[in-house]
Amino acid sequence: MSATIINSFQLATNNSNIYGGFFVFITGVIGNILNIIIFTSLKTFRQTSAAFYMTTASIVNIFQLVVGLLSRILITGYNIDPTKTSSFICKARTFTLTTTMLTTFTCMCFAAIDQYLLLKHRWRHLCTVKAASRLIIVAFILCLLHGIPVLLFQDLELSSSTGQTTCGFTNTGFSIYYSRFLFPVLLGFLPLIIRVCFGILAFINVHHFNNRETPIVRLERDKQLTKMVLVEVVVDVFLTLPYSIYNHFYSSSVTFTNAVDSAENQFIIALTRIIFNGNFMVAFYIYCCVSARFRKQLIYVLVNIYFNNWGRKGPENHINQINP
Fold first, then answer.
1. Can you name the residues that pair with 167 across neighbouring β-strands?
2. Residue in 189, 20, 177, 183 with CA at minimum distance from that of residue 97
3. How far is the first Cα of the chain from the last one, in angstroms, to the nearest whole number?
4. Is 206:222 a contact under the CB 8 Å cutoff?
5. What crossing angle do the helices spanning 259-277 and 21-41 adopt, rounded to 10°?
6. Partners of 156 in the beta sheet?
7. Which residues in the chain show pLDDT less than 50?
8. What's the CA angle centered on 204, arms 116 and 227, to 5 degrees?
């Protein structure tokens, strides 16, 4: 009976990693590409610092999905683990994983803070694309520096219990920092708290904001971005907390002596990990759901800018190929 239960959990874990992982990966890559296209094609977004942060987050999200999620699908779903065969891959995967996640969450924190400052007259001058680009560069450099200990303290090691080579931390102190502070705090509660606080403040301010000197178009754009940022924060809370709480506080502190409990634990970890990766997939679909203006902008960009331009260039290219 217990063997049947264990096999059921193992099958559910494998299916979650493969089917759930590929669903998040494919929809995430498509959504982030569409975000980049929209935010870079429309002048109203190109001149907005909050949209610049969102664009940067979308670019980094693609790297996160490819390096983090796709490799995780191969490791847990198909038992293809290149990190066990190369010290460089072992170090590079974790380094890229932590750097991209920190960069993404930093960008979204900046976007929430930016929307709050934008609605304050005395701080509005700080909300420029030039200032945002400088902040992103500084933040990215700090994220890279933060990853240096990964390159120093992670390597291939031989497991004394299984006799197999694994990719793990060689320093106990950094291993504790990684599991007890980096994931649950820097990639969990801290960015959520910052985004929730400034998102709520921006939401309150936008409803009391009434400045006749502000053009209607810019006011509507600010309201649109504030709503998009705030709703994304709410969704990210539900995507982040299950993995942070269960994997880094409960599962890591409990010893599972029963094989059934261990299999169940692996299934819950796999499921909450897939949900957590939704952070890097869901932005575009949130924007489409909460903003009718964003949906119209999506159609305008895809149809009026890209499709029509492609249609106009197509016959010309065809004619040029026939009659050079």
1. 156
2. 183
3. 75
4. yes
5. 10
6. 167
7. 212, 315, 318-324
8. 70
